């Protein structure tokens, strides 16, 4: 009977994994409900008091940029070419190899700079043009090649155009989303997740695979039993884990198992973490034996980048071992 239950749990978990890949968030079983537009006045005051209503703060977060872009596409025609140029530069900055950057930088230069120079319609400074031309002539293509253009694009958008955005319905929608973002951690409960099979155990509880109802995304839910914590006098350890997870989850390092949400029930403390379903290094070592030098260099590089991310936040990782280095489905590692 126990074997049958284990098989059913495995099947349920695998079905949830497949569903998370194929079901768009918009069609997930539980929808995110935005607050009424009247929340704008409250949120605007809240953001102003915390200096979060500046152009840079809004433009440099994804939801703010997308709503600002949507506003310009519908209302400010002259800003559209600059936003497209900005997006091209940001895609260029993500390229890893110098060869890719050299090819893409030439395309950007020909499509956005040279084309406008030839038509005498280039709205940017000679200093920005000279900076890019000098580097391209020497075949020097650092990720920051187009940084002078980023600065000038932002300067051109942060004035009257940004003020018109603040007065628009798109800013109202931004306030609605910010209200959801700021309140989501408070309102989370077990009902927001479909909890599946146990995928790990620890000193204070278990780790489950789970699926968030409103987005369909899969996570790992680490549940710490409050009675077990109290019995083992582990209150400080549990609190420290929560604090450390919050610290290392800031930023965008892909080599850390990040905490996305945290909440508690009458019986448990729950941490919602990135799901790593590729096993751990200890498992792969025991199954496949010694790694090749090429594999070891690859894993070591990603481990070092993860440690660097922690050290930049003044966190020392004191439990580094193969069992705590998890792999995702693509073979990249993350610190647990």
Jot down its keywords.
3 domains; Phosphorylase Kinase, domain 1; two-stranded antiparallel ribbon; 336 residues; EC 2.7.11.-; 7 strands; Regulator of G-protein Signalling 4, domain 2; 14 helices; alpha+beta; globular
Plain-language structure description:
It is a single chain. The chain has 336 residues and is α+β, with helices and mostly antiparallel strands. The chain folds into three domains: 2-28 and 190-273, Phosphorylase Kinase, domain 1, CATH 3.30.200.20; 39-183, Orthogonal Bundle (Regulator of G-protein Signalling 4, domain 2), CATH 1.10.167.10; 281-335, no CATH class. 54% of the residues lie in helices and 13% in strands. It has helices spanning 2-22, 39-49, 55-59, 62-75, 80-93, 98-118, 126-137, 147-157, 160-166, 169-187, 226-231, 235-248, 281-288, 293-311; strands at 193-201, 205-212, 218-225, 259-264, 268-273, 325-327, 333-335. The strands form two sheets. Strands 1-2-3-5-4 form a five-stranded antiparallel β-sheet. Strands 6-7 form a two-stranded antiparallel ribbon. A hairpin with a 5-residue loop joins strand 2 and strand 3. Helix 4 (62-75) packs antiparallel against helix 10 (169-187) and helix 5 packs antiparallel against helix 6 (98-118). The longest helix is centred in the first third of the chain and has 21 residues, at 2-22. It starts with a helix and ends with a strand. The model is unreliable at 24-29 (pLDDT under 50).
């Amino acid at each position: 009977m126990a074997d049958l239950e284990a098989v059913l749990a495995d099947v349920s978990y695998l079905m949830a994994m497949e569903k998370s890949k194929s079901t768009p968030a918009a069609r997930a079983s539980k929808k995110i409900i935005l607050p009424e537009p009247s929340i704008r006045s409250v949120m605007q005051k809240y953001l102003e008091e915390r200096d979060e209503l500046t152009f840079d703060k809004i433009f440099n977060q994804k939801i703010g940029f997308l709503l600002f872009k949507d506003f310009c596409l519908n209302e400010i025609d002259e800003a559209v070419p600059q936003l497209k140029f900005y997006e091209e530069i940001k895609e260029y900055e993500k390229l890893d190899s110098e060869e890719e950057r050299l090819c893409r930088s030439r395309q950007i230069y020909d499509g956005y700079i040279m084309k406008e120079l030839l038509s005498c319609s280039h709205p940017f400074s000679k200093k920005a043009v000279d900076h890019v031309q000098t580097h391209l002539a020497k075949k020097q293509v650092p990720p920051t090649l187009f940084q002078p253009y980023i600065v000038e694009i932002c300067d051109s958008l942060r004035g009257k155009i940004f003020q018109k955005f603040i007065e628009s319905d798109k800013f109202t929608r931004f306030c609605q989303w910010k209200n959801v973002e700021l309140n989501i951690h408070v309102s989370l409960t077990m009902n927001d997740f479909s909890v599946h099979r146990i995928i790990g155990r620890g000193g204070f509880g278990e780790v489950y695979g789970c699926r968030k109802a409103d987005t369909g995304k899969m996570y790992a839910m680490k549940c710490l039993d409050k009675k077990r914590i109290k019995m083992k006098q582990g209150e400080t350890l549990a609190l420290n884990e929560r604090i450390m997870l919050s610290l290392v989850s800031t930023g965008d390092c892909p080599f850390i198992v990040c905490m996305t949400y945290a909440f508690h029930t009458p019986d448990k403390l729950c941490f919602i973490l990135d799901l790593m379903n590729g096993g751990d290094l200890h498992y792969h070592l025991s199954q496949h034996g010694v790694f090749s030098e090429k594999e070891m260099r690859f894993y070591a590089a990603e481990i070092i980048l993860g440690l660097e991310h922690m050290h930049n936040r003044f966190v020392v990782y004191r439990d580094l071992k193969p069992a705590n280095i998890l792999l995702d489905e693509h073979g990249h590692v993350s610190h647990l």
